[in-house]
Amino acid sequence: MQTFPDMFQRSPRHTLIALLACICAGPQGAAAHASPPVSLTQLEDRARAFAPSARLAQADVTVAEQRSAALQAGSGAQLFGGAGVDNAREAVTDTLSRDYQRTQMHLGVRWPLLGTRAAQQRTVDDAQHAVEQSRLRRLQMENEAVLAVRRAYVRHLRSVERIRLADAFLRVRAEAQEQLASRHAAGVLLEADRLDLGGLFNIVQATHDSQSAARDLARAEIERLTGQPAAAVQTQEPAWPQTCLAPGAAALDRSPAVTLAQQEVDAALQRQQHARLEGVQASVSLAQSFSRDIGGPTGHSTRVGVDFSLPLQWRSQRDAALAQAQGEIDRAQALLALRRSELEAAAQQALAAYRLRDKEMAGHQHRQQAAAEALRIAQLRLNAFDGDGYSKLLTTRYALYQAAVQVVDGAERRDLAALDVLALGDGCTLAWHDAPAAPDPWAATVAALAGGTAPASAKAVPGETGLGWYVWQGQALLDQPAQLDELPPRSRRLLLSFTAAQLQALARPDGRARWMALRAQAQARQLTLELLLGEPTWVLPHERARLLALVESLRDLPADALHLDLERSQLPAAQQRDWSRHLIDTLQAVRAAAPWPLALTTHYRELQQPGFAARVHAAGVGEVVAMLYVNNPERTATLARPLLSAAPAGLRIAVAQSIESALPAQESSFALGKARSLQRWDALAHQLAGLPGFGGVVVQSWEDYREARP
């Protein structure tokens, strides 16, 4: 009989992942292979054209356009005419009368004037406003259809992830129950414990079934909104545009609801102009008539006529009409103010909810890492604790499953909150940014749940380490802490640099108080503040004392780390040869004097030297940020992977990227703008997240990022 430990070792990782993919695909697997999965971008395009609400809105636009065209054609001058035959008897004298028959015809043109013309123009204007409003409602319906598709996509994606985790846990169900029964029979496991542990699989199975139903419902909703079957929906991690998730990104004045209200104001103002001639009807006409008596001569006449009508109480009628028009204006303006206030409140609430959900992810991910580590330890201790060892192994596997599901739940809540923010942004509601292909973020967790070895450090979500920023004008941030609100949501660390005079001010009580105030606001946003000191000559023996004196003057300042920016290339050529040796001596001296964790920024080529990373780590450095200024995520990842693989255990390696305006496009993403730069940095984090010791992406610099276009 196969033993439980053997079961954990018998399945290669690639075979397991392939088997899990088949289980998740189910009977629809063949259809998925028959045609490529449908991306969210394609689903959105279909929803704009085929969603029932969007199609109805398009029909309303067509009707409004035709009605407006008909009224436009029917306004203005009108052609009139007529014809008739008279059979007449006219008295000539008291005793004599004349009988005759006459044919006549007239043709003319009539132009409306004053109130009549104003009434026609008001009707035409109202019809045109109706067209514009129907188009805005169509845009509104399209946006709502896209939002609904995105929500269904997120629910589908997260349901698939939960199913995958459940499948992985249930893979060992039969073998585990067999082992539990065997150990119960051998007297090393109580019946209550056997039933309790076996019930874990029943709980996970129930979750699997409910998530399968949720996945099917989400797919049905996608099919309803897109108007065609979705044979296979792509399960790609969404990468929402981060610039649209920042404070102030909502463009309320350009939202369809506010634009509709503004059009109501404009229409009311136009109606007020027309109301000044209310009740006054007039027209001028030009007509030509011809007549002929049967058996007699032909006659003709030309007529120019003006006619009008005016109510006896015209002034009262006009004043009432003007008052009514003003009332409509006031109502439309009140409605506009209401729509703006509603959207402002909605934007604030949506942004607050998103930031809260985004911050919650760190706790979920930390719990998953702890559970993965507990499972790894339980696997190592399995043979040492007979029955209790197996119980502990199953319970820690279930704890990892629960922690992973919590990460999925948190990601779903965060994504749905992000969609509420995006729906209020200018250009964000309809703009989808496809994330580049990334390694499977769940591969390690799935392998551990299915019986493989749990990783020592499992990252549930790529880019969990967050984004860092070099802030060279740290004093500006002290003076304007509101800049923290401009940081992209995934920002987690700030490396603050100051001038010598500013550092002296920080060492004084008033400067320390300002630092503490900024640090409190940063901690509320889950940001770390690190002191950034950069001067290349500090590695030289005769300059090292200045650095140590500076560190000593600041040692009472609470900071999360001390970051040294020391680069070989910034020294004169004659001093670069001994840079490595002097650097190690400097780092050791600073480590002995500084009360904070120590980090180093330097060029990535230094880490390519054999033994350099190990010497730096031995000198007391906990993190090295490698300056790798290549504006291509794939190329950057290719260069960074060997550095991470060769790093000693315990040393974190972060990657520095540039958005500096002074650097060429091959090195800096400044020309691409904020949104695309964030996409590239997220893509880089996705590609490196699975490697041990990866410390995230740090951007050079915050000041250049603020100056870049959106």
From TrEMBL:
Q: What are the record's GO terms for cellular component? A: cell outer membrane; efflux pump complex
Lineage: superkingdom: Bacteria
Q: State the signal peptide span.
A: 1-30
Question: Where does this protein reside within or beyond the cell?
Answer: Cell outer membrane
What Gene3D superfamilies would the database entry show? Outer membrane efflux proteins (OEP)
Instruction: Kindly indicate whether the keyword Transferase belongs to this entry.
Output: no
Identify the main location.
membrane
Cite the SUPFAM superfamilies for this sequence. Answer: Outer membrane efflux proteins (OEP)
Protein's UniProt keywords contain Signal: yes
Per UniProt, the keywords (alphabetical) are: Cell outer membrane, Membrane, Signal, Transmembrane, Transmembrane beta strand
- A Gene Ontology MF term for this entry? efflux transmembrane transporter activity
> What is the protein name given in its UniProt record?
Outer membrane protein TolC
Organism encoding this protein: Melaminivora alkalimesophila
